[in-house]
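Friendly challenge for the regulars: who can give me the structure tokens for this chain first? No prize, just bragging rights.
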Amino acid sequence: MSALTLTEPMPGLDPWTDYTLEAVTGAPGLFSLRPAENADLRLFLLDASVYVPQYAPDLTDAAEGLGLASGEAARVLVVATPGADRTTVNLLAPVVVNERTGTGAQVILNDQDYPLQAPLAR
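First reply, four minutes later:
Bragging rights claimed.
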């Protein structure tokens, strides 16, 4: 289990900024995210490099805001929404994490053409 502090609350999850981010055993690249103050709430996040390797948003501003040094890679996670027929991922608002500092932010990609609900390929 690791702590993750967001620079501001995620939309719909105000006022929480402190979370636990846990890898799901047996599922490489799958994580659960829970507010530190509300363990009953859980989001599933997927490592974009594992599940949507073609995903390449411009995260320059987010990287600078999270204190990533030039050339330092951020972990890019996407929110997954399981459904009865399929799972979708939010490519419009990834969660960008500076693993060195344990800080992150959900970034809204306003000027980039990514869907809010992209079907996850099997």
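The beta strands are 2-6, 18-23, 30-35, 43-47, 75-82, 87-89, 95-98, 103-106, 118-119. The chain has two helices and nine strands. Your move, everyone else.
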